[in-house]
Amino acid sequence: MSIFTNLFLVSSLLPLALSYPFFPPTCYSKVLSMARELTQWAADLKGDPETSPCMAHMPDLYLDVHNACVMYKMRTYISLVEGLRDRRCAYTREVRKFGLTLRQLFIIMSEKCHGDLVFTIYDCAVLERYPGY
């Protein structure tokens, strides 16, 4: 009887396990994908006619999670986004959402994934150029 119970248990759990769409991301893969998305998002905001007056004076954002200077670059960019004084810019939904997502990435990198990340280079000049992804 226990064979039938085990067989029933396996047969009921197997479809559930196979229907799960993906494995949960590791901290490193989450940070890497968020950095790529935010780099592209910043470029899109600069090119968007609605937000380009707000983001025109902002420097290009290139986030390389392997560069030790990325934390300084993110902290500086967050303060620039939060410091937008123009009412139209400060209350633009996309700009606010971008700033909050960038802050979330900063918190994840500094607090949650701190031990999982390895900075392989320390070259702040590389982050000033936008090589694209």
Structure description:
By secondary structure, the chain is mainly alpha-helical. It has one domain. The chain is 64% helix and 0% strand. The chain is built from 7 helices and no strands. The longest helix has 21 residues. It starts with a helix and ends in a 5-residue tail after the last helix.
Integer count of domains? 1
Low-confidence stretches: none
Task: List the total number of helices.
Answer: 7
* Rg estimate, integer Å: 21 Å
Measured by DSSP, the beta-strand proportion falls in under 5%
How does the overall form come out from the CA principal axes?
Answer: elongated
Strands, total number: 0
Judged by helices, strands and strand pairing, the structural class is: mainly alpha
Helix-strand topology string = HHHHHHH
End-to-end Cα distance: 58 Å
Largest sheet: none
Helix content: 55-70%
Itemize the secondary structure elements and their pairings.
Elements: H1 2-19, H2 27-47, H3 52-55, H4 70-82, H5 87-90, H6 93-112, H7 124-128
Helix pairs in contact: 2-6, 4-6
Q: Which features does this protein show?
A:
133 residues; 7 helices; signal; mainly alpha
In brief:
The protein is an all-alpha fold and 133 residues long.
